[in-house]
Amino acid sequence: MDCHRCENKAIYTRRYSGESLCRDCFSLSIVRKTAKTISRYNMIKRGDDVAIAVSGGKDSLSLLHVLNNLSTKGGYTIRAVTIDEGIPGYREEALEIVDKYCKGMGIQYSVLSYKQMYDTTLQERLEKRTDSTSSCSLCGVLRRQAIEQAAAGADVVATAHNMDDYIQTFLINTMSGDVSRIGRNAVGTSRRVQPFCNIYESEIVFYAFINDIPFQSEPCPHMDEGIRTSVREFLNELEEKHSGIKNNMNKSIQKIAGFVQDAKVRRTCRICGRQSTTDVCSVCRVLERTA
Questions:
Q1: Helix, strand or coil, per DSSP, at residue 277
Q2: b (16+ CB within 10 A) / e for 114-150
Q3: How many CA atoms lie within 13 A of 250 on its CB side?
Q4: Is residue 6 part of a domain?
């Protein structure tokens, strides 16, 4: 089968559109779609210092690769920041992969650990957990603030959340009854941006593969504790039966998120002094519960 955009042999077919693409045209389509998303939502401006949260997985290293290609023409600079949660036997491999990749690409790179920031590790906190809070929820709270700290001084913080992640988060927030988070997650409403928000996770995997991007394939040992895995499997099953349903859901969700107002008032946490929507921020509550 020939590529629909040139005369080369196609190696990938998008079931949701029927388009078949060769290696070069597929890669270019991902870069162009990312650039279009950045432009549409005014995510990054000329002169911006962009800190990219890089975990060592396929999504974040692919985002680093794409933004590195776009940064010169876009007139902005990039740097990578990685958070070491302190997960024994897991995070070490990712740190090594990111360090080697950034050095090879000539990209500025820094690491911030939970131990440095909170004087504890994720593993230590999980061992002291006394309630049913999932490890993903606990880690997510600590990780978000750690990324902000690691990216201090940056104009923009770019995360590699893809279209699948975006849909999953919307459904999880809806099922948990936290409607305010839907408005907070609207695309292009904060300095934290998601340039991959309109790209399928499966396409990012393929992009990493054909561009020889190294990444940690071993999943986090705690990933199955939360509801996200069940939601992911449900959505993948739907997409398999009804090609394009994720794409349609994503468009609808972005419209809904744009109409939902984040009604929570911003205040200052009385313990750490950081911005919060409650008297005590989520990070301090987590640290208190697992002390």
A1: coil
A2: beebbebbbbebbeeeeeebbbbebbebbbbbbbbeb
A3: 19
A4: no
Amino acid letter at 221?
Answer: P
Q: Which two tokens stand for residue 253?
A: 């969700």
Q: How many folded domains does the chain comprise?
A: 1
Residue 71, domain member (yes or no) = yes
Taking alpha carbons only, the member of 153, 62, 53, 101 closest to residue 70 is 62
- Say whether pTM exceeds 0.90: yes
* CATH number of the domain bearing residue 49: 3.40.50.620
pLDDT tens-digit readout, 137-167: 889 999 999 999 999 999 999 999 999 999 9
pLDDT of 17 reads: 94
33-81: per-residue pLDDT in tens? 999 999 999 999 999 999 999 999 999 999 999 999 999 999 999 999 9
In-domain check, residue 16:
no
Q: Which domain holds residue 125?
A: 34-218+225-289
